[in-house]
Structure formats: structure tokens, C-alpha cells
Amino acid sequence: MEHVAVLAPSECHLKIQALGEIDAFNLFCRRAFYNRKDHRCPLDLENVAASIVTKCKGLPLAIVTMGGLMSTKLPTEHAWQQMYNQLRSELAKNDDVKAILKLSYHALPADQKNCFLYCSLFPEDFRISRESLVRYWVAEGFAVRIEHNRPEDVAEINLMELIHRNMLEVDEYDELGKVNSCKMHDIVRNLALSIAGQERFGYANDYGAVEKIDWEVRRLSLFLNNGKSCASTVKFPHLRALLETTTHPPGLLSSILSESKYLTVLELQDSDITEVPACIGKLFNLRYIGLRRTRLCSLPESIDKLSNLQTLDIKQTKIEKLPRGITKIKKLRHLLADRYEDENKSEFRYFIGVQAPKELSNLEELRTLETVEASKDLAEQLKKLMQLRSVWIDNIRTADCTNLFATLSKMPLLSSLLLSASHENETLCLEALKPESEELHRLIVRGCWAARTLEYPIFRDHGKNLKYLVISWCRLQEDPLLLLAPYVPNLVFLSLNRVNSAITLVLSADCFPQLKTLVLKRMPDVNHLEIIGGALQHIEGLYVVSLPKLDNVPQGIESLRYLKKLWLLGLHKNFRSQWQKNGMHQKMQHVPELHVKD
């Protein structure tokens, strides 16, 4: 934007040039022929490919969008010429990058068009959670079961297709390499908003006045300024989805819910609501309720009438107990519930699960159960929940371990498991944990370990399947890195938090060959960390935090050539001076994100 650039001195201006002919063609080929070893354009397609690139006028967004679109077409001259003719026709109506984006939109299947338009409901530069998007789309019916693929699998496929076509951008990957969050380019979002408005698909109220919104809107996102005045009563009788994350006048939510009988998705995370209107029980079509990080202390009893509900997210609220009738909702697939007792996460039980309802076993469709408190009959209840993929259990006592872990072991689809003891001195005995599911890749254990834990089946037999491991509040006494390495060779993420250990930690040459992220946090005894040449060959993130006795620079740290993030925080008061004395800032210039603080 030229008018923004003129605010800076002239020597700071950078005029962005369009890509040259060769660079533009190479970029296009890398997208269009991504599955060919050399990304080379076939000879019979060179002329039409060059014509397509010329129409993009050197604009990278247009080039990669067209490249993504053409990668889905048959590599024949006839198919490509047809698409080029469509491109010319679209550009004749609107000679800019939006015409190219619109062409890519029209080439999408109907369900992916809906998924694409849905993303425009979020504000500019908003980080959209992959998990949330998948659940929204499933709730709305944009992703349905196809043969052996569950609706969630189909939604994931749709997401990756939109990313491949550059209609969504990956914002962040998770520890296992899956997309964690994504964003929509401003220009792409403007196009999506325009189409969504024309088709009455949805409306993003970017800090505008609610009363001016078309009453026939089907999907609405509200991001209201705290100080902006707004009517407390509005009606949207055709509403299917409401996304609202900020403050609103008293009565506004009740007004919307009482008239929106078709509502399918209700997302209110981070809003200031303290009560859910009882009229929510009349919304027969409701499939998704998101109330994360709100100030709620309870849910209305009428929620048991929502027989189509698939997702209930009440994480990080003040809710201690679920309504008695929650177990009547037989279609519930994702139950996410806990409360934060300590925002600083310094206490052992900084988050606490909800009490499991007595008839939890009725919810046979459950895929996700995060987090419930252990109880005498929890193991028996879980025996009927064999569809579970992710299970988080809090408040486990030593006496609970045998029955509870034996039941968890029989879950054929289990992929993520969190086990948290009732107290920092409570011992967790993992001997009965013998997972039948080879998909159990993520394990989080909080609490003391029984003796010889590493010789139990979860590590001895299943350890090679683990990719993500978090250990907290454990007393190993010896070097935990040396102990763990032989049992979990395929880890990509390892976090040790408040683990009492030997004073010296050593990463030997062959340990953790696949590890990409290592977190060493609140380990008060450690005063020396050594990285032997050849260790951590693929490490990208190293976080050494609150090791108050560590006063010397970790030996061998400069050999980690693929590091992208390095945090060295809360170490000994002499650490920073040693870092500077050894000229480490120069040696670690290859690390894009570097934080060194006392």
C-alpha cells in the first residue's frame, strides 16, 4: 500500500516487483506438477502452461492458486486448454487476481465450496483451529461418511484439499506434523465473503452493528467492540451457525436462540457469558456447542433434550458437574470438559476434570472424552465406550490403576491418553496398561511412577509406537533421557516437567533420532546438559526453562543445525554471561527464534 509506505523515510521503501517470466513458470510448475520428481512440465503442456502463467501477471498468489487448480486436472492438452479458456472468460469479466481465485472456487466440489466459505466467517488473520473446523463441518453436514472414511476423515481431506489449492494457508503444524491451525489470505477472504453474501451462505459482522444484518442470514459471526452499542433483541429465524467470541448486551443471546430453531453450531468460546439460556433445549438441530474459556459455572438441565448434539466443549470453565441428563444424548461424539484451578500451572492439579455421570456408558458414540475424574466405577463404565480415540483421566489413585488401565488397554482405536494422579505423591502403576491399539501415539503421564515402570508393556512392547510423550511430577533420580531413549526410539515430541533426576543430563549420539521437539522444564537438580555429536539430528524446537542450577552453555548445542526455536529461560544467574562470553549469539545465528533470559 503506497499510502502506508510514504509514512516511512524513502530509503526504507521497498517496491515489490512481479515475478519474472522464468521464476513465475518455475513456481507454477512446482505447484501443478508437485507429484513429479523434478516438477518438470510435460512437453505437450508447455504452451498452454505458459499461457496460463502469463495471465497471472507475475503475482505469486495467482500463480500458486492456478498451479494448485491445474494439479487436479488430467495432464492432457485438451483438459488444460478447456481450463485456460475458462480462465480467459473469467478474466474478461474481472481482470485481476480475484478472477483467478474465483475460477479455483468454481472448480471445487459442492461440499468443499461450503467448507471454504465457512472459513470467511472468522476475522482477518484469525488462527482457525483444525479440530474446531473439522467439528463445525461435520455438524453442518459438509462432511459425511464415505465408505470406510468417517465424517471427521472426510472433513480432514477437504481441509487438506483447500490448503493444497492455496485457498487456506497453514498457520502452524502440531508436534506430530498435522495441521494445527490455518488462516485465510485477506484477498481470498474478501472473495469468500463476497460469494457468501451473494449466496446468503453467511455474514461476518466485523465489528459492525447487529441490527443492520439481513434477517435471512444463515451463518453469522459476531465480533463486537466492547464499547459499541447494540440492540438487545434481534431475530434471525434462518440461522444455522452463530460464532461469537466477545461481549454482548444482556438478552442478546436469548433473543437469538429463542428464534433460531434451525441452529446447528453455537460457538461462544472466550465470550463473557455467565449463563446459558434454558431455551437452548428447544434447538433440536443443535449439533455443536462451544463454551470454552467462558465464565460458566453450570449448564441448564434442558440440555438433555438436544438429542442430535455431537460436540460439547466446556473446557476451562468453572463447571464442576455435568447435568444429570447428559447421558440421554446418545449421538454425543466429543465431550471436552475441565476447569482450571491454577492459571499459572504451578500446582499439581492445576486443571481438574468433571465428575463422570453415573450412566456414562450410554454414550456409546463417544470419540473424545477429556477430562473426567477417576472413580470406583469408571473402569466398568468405559467398557462400553469402545469408539474412544482420545481419553483424559484425572484424579487417579493407586487403587484405581489395575482395573482402569486394563479397560483402557482393550480400546481398539485409542490414539491419545492422559493419566493424571490424584496427588503429586500418589503412585501410578502402569503394569496393567497393555494397549491393543497400535494407534496409541500420544501419552501424557502426570504423577509418580511405580518401580520398574519402563519394564512394563506400555514401554517395553508399545514404546516403539509412541511419538508424543509428556512426563510430569515424576521422580526418576537417574538421567531420564538416558533411561527413556532405548524404549521410545520414534518420539518426535518429548517433554519432561518437574522430573526429579540426576544433576547431569546427556543426549548420546544415537538417542531420539526422530525427535523434533524437546522440552526440559522445572528440573531443579540439573546443572549440566550435554549434547554429544550426532544426537538430535532432526530437532527443530529446544525449550530449556526453569533449570535454576544450569549455569553453563549446554555442550554441543551449536551442532543442532536444524533448530528453528531455542528457548533458554529461567536458568542460573551466571548463564547469560557465560552465553555471551562463549560468543553463542554468533554461533547460533542459524536459529530464527532465539530467547535467552535469566
From TrEMBL:
<feature type="domain" description="Disease resistance protein winged helix">
    <location>
        <begin position="121"/>
        <end position="192"/>
    </location>
</feature>
<dbReference type="InterPro" id="IPR027417">
    <property type="entry name" value="P-loop_NTPase"/>
</dbReference>
<dbReference type="GO" id="GO:0002758">
    <property type="term" value="P:innate immune response-activating signaling pathway"/>
</dbReference>
<dbReference type="InterPro" id="IPR032675">
    <property type="entry name" value="LRR_dom_sf"/>
</dbReference>
<dbReference type="GO" id="GO:0009626">
    <property type="term" value="P:plant-type hypersensitive response"/>
</dbReference>
<keyword id="KW-0611">Plant defense</keyword>
<dbReference type="InterPro" id="IPR058922">
    <property type="entry name" value="WHD_DRP"/>
</dbReference>
<feature type="domain" description="Disease resistance R13L4/SHOC-2-like LRR">
    <location>
        <begin position="255"/>
        <end position="591"/>
    </location>
</feature>
<dbReference type="InterPro" id="IPR055414">
    <property type="entry name" value="LRR_R13L4/SHOC2-like"/>
</dbReference>
<protein>
    <submittedName>
        <fullName>Uncharacterized protein</fullName>
    </submittedName>
</protein>
<dbReference type="GO" id="GO:0042742">
    <property type="term" value="P:defense response to bacterium"/>
</dbReference>
<dbReference type="GO" id="GO:0043531">
    <property type="term" value="F:ADP binding"/>
</dbReference>
<dbReference type="Pfam" id="PF23598">
    <property type="entry name" value="LRR_14"/>
</dbReference>
<dbReference type="InterPro" id="IPR036388">
    <property type="entry name" value="WH-like_DNA-bd_sf"/>
</dbReference>
<keyword id="KW-0677">Repeat</keyword>
<dbReference type="InterPro" id="IPR042197">
    <property type="entry name" value="Apaf_helical"/>
</dbReference>
<dbReference type="Pfam" id="PF23559">
    <property type="entry name" value="WHD_DRP"/>
</dbReference>
<dbReference type="InterPro" id="IPR044974">
    <property type="entry name" value="Disease_R_plants"/>
</dbReference>
